[in-house]
Specification:
- The protein has helices at residues 50-57, 82-92, 184-188, 236-244, 262-275, 293-304, 342-355, 380-388, 419-435, 446-465, 474-477, 489-493, and strands spanning 30-36, 45-47, 98-103, 112-116, 123-129, 139-147, 150-157, 165-172, 198-202, 219-223, 252-255, 278-282, 316-320, 323-326, 336-339, 373-374, 391-397, 401-405, 478-481, 500-503, 512-520, 523-531.
- It has 532 residues and is α+β, with helices and mostly antiparallel strands.
- The protein has an eight-stranded mixed beta sheet, sandwiched between helices. A four-stranded antiparallel beta sheet has the order 8-7-6-10.
- Helix 2 (82-92) packs parallel to helix 7 (342-355) and helix 4 runs parallel beside helix 5 (262-275).
- The longest helix has 20 residues, at 446-465.
- The two termini are 45 Å apart.
- 40% of the residues are buried.
Length: 532
């Protein structure tokens, strides 16, 4: 009998042949980019456009911190933070929405500003940037009186020009008893409709709110000050799981732009496997120019071999090599820069999901990247070697462009050596968890078992009809069992309900073997080719 620590839906994977007897869900997998960057919210934030990223986080122009401890992988080839480049390339390569986790130094401090009461004698409001770092000093706030006891609270980012107005809160009051719900602290700090840039703390003198006295004085756009980027680099293998575990029911594909440390990536892989709904998409080593083709190949192979290799895990995928793109941070004609592939790859993953679903491997001639060139063009022999090591290569396809040409995780066993299979399992387990939430705390009897069976069968029927499962009929695509055969009196009394689900999973066609026969006068000539 399994022992579970809390009420919930739990999974155990078993890959066995399917017995002959038998979308739109919240939290579906999203790409997630996490990186050291001194700007924007430090909580995981959904970003739905490049313009939104610019507004909330800043741009490529945020200078690298003077902290000499900042790891070189976080800054990339041009000495600038890689996080915004990864986000930009994600949206340039088919991405539509992602989670962004900006990691500040652990000793960074937040910018702030004091606002005075109407007589301009006492500071009664402290405005603080939502996250630490010098970026907060680009925030300006404005107080505009509009009526007795009411004011507009405006937030600017970058500078105080009208075009940089990013938030406005009309008819705000300092009166905590106001029945319109416009009290400043409640409104600005609301987790639903509050500010994305600042929080406020209201401090009244003794006697509390007094109309006309402890109302807020008007203030022209004024910058927040007193911030620091700090100097203590966060521990990546700790801060990323801690932050993203605040999203317990959100499936994710996580990329840390530029990170190639096998020890840190191994820690993240263990965390991802523990969650069960997360994959780590890895970038390779930062290029060290000049470099040879053989050196690049060897550097990638070394990441998956030897004593410090990446773990054998279906929750991790590695792509090679870095890519050369038009430099979006430069106005110089023809400027280009080398970037890690993770941002571009995840853009293709998401575009693939929208078009075909997770059953389709995000690779092949339909996965064309918007790049100028590659760090190196691997030879056919090297491509064979990378594939044998489960490293997903990028290569040029004549007449098509630069394509993703690998669909494997770092697992060696079937079927989870394939990205499509692992992603489909993440989807199924995530969706089952959501669908079965109503079963929790219900009477554990035959009626509940029938409901679970019907719910899962209906869902799997939809997946089969959408071409996401193998087989063309329910009996060849899936089997759901939740009855007295796998739910006994003992398990029911212990609060456990067991549903056994078998599904036919589709693996990608990696190798297409073609035999060409030509009939000639005295016999047959056969040529066998292999496309991969």
């Amino acid at each position: 009998m399994p022992t579970n620590g809390r009420p919930g839906v739990f999974f155990q994977e078993s890959f066995q042949p399917l017995s002959t007897g038998g979308g739109g869900i919240p939290g579906e997998a999203l790409p997630c980019f996490a990186g050291i960057y001194p700007g924007g919210p430090t909580a995981p934030t959904l970003v739905t456009s490049w313009n939104q990223f610019l507004i909330q986080y800043g741009s490529f122009s945020i200078p690298a911190t003077s902290n000499t401890n900042t790891p070189s992988w976080a800054l990339g080839m041009n000495g600038r933070y890689l996080l915004p480049f990864a986000i930009y390339e994600f949206f340039q390569n088919g991405g539509s929405q992602c989670i962004v986790l900006s990691l500040a130094n652990s000793d960074a401090t937040s910018a702030s500003l004091q606002l005075e009461d109407t007589p301009a004698t006492t500071d009664i409001v402290t405005v603080t940037a939502k996250s630490p770092g010098v970026w907060g000093q680009s925030i300006f706030v404005e107080v505009v009186a509009v009526a007795a006891g009411y004011f507009n609270f405006n937030v600017y980012f970058g500078n105080s020009s009208p075009s940089n107005l990013v938030e406005t809160f009309p008819y705000v009051t300092m009166n905590p008893q106001d029945h319109s719900g416009r009290f400043m602290a409640t409104l600005i700090n609301s987790p639903i409709g509050g500010s994305h840039y600042v929080s406020v703390a209201v401090t009244f003198p003794s006697g509390g709110y007094v109309a006309g006295t402890t109302d807020l004085a008007a203030a022209s756009p004024t910058p927040l000050t007193g911030a620091s980027d700090g100097s203590i680099v966060p521990v990546i293998g700790t801060v990323i799981p801690t932050a993203l575990d605040t999203l317990p029911d959100q499936a994710m594909y996580v990329n840390v732009p530029g990170l190639s440390s096998t020890s840190i990536l191994g820690t993240l892989a263990s965390w991802a496997a523990g969650r069960g709904d997360t994959m780590i998409v890895c970038d390779g080593p930062t290029p060290t120019l000049p470099e040879t083709n053989a050196t690049v190949y060897t550097n990638y192979v070394n990441m998956v071999t030897g004593g410090s290799a990446l773990p054998v895990s279906s929750y991790m995928a590695l792509y090679a090599p870095w890519v050369l793109v038009q430099d979006p941070s430069s106005t110089a004609q023809g400027a280009a820069t080398l970037l890690p592939p993770g941002g571009l790859v995840l853009g293709q993953w998401q575009q693939n999901d929208v078009a075909s679903g997770t059953v389709q491997t995000p690779a092949g001639t339909q996965a064309v990247l918007n790049v100028v060139d590659l760090e190196t063009r691997f030879t056919s022999t090297q491509l064979n070697g990378l594939n044998n090591y489960n490293i997903n290569a990028l290569k040029i396809v004549p007449g098509v462009g630069f394509c993703i040409f690998g669909g494997r995780t770092l697992d060696v066993g079937y079927p989870t050596r394939y990205i499509a299979v692992r992603r489909m399992l993440i989807k199924l387990e995530h969706d089952f968890n959501w669908l079965l939430q109503p079963a929790l705390f219900q009477p554990n009897d035959a009626q509940l078992w029938a409901w679970v069976t019907s719910t899962l069968q209906n869902y799997l029927m939809q997946q089969m009809q959408a071409g996401q499962l193998g087989g063309t009929t329910p009996s060849t695509s899936y089997l759901v069992t939740c009855d007295s055969t796998n739910n006994t009196l003992a398990t029911a009394s212990a609060g456990i309900i067991t549903a056994t689900v078998a599904v036919s999973l589709l693996s990608p066609a990696e190798f297409i073997n073609i035999t060409i026969s030509q009939f000639q006068g005295t016999g047959t000539t056969t040529v066998t080719t292999s496309t991969s």
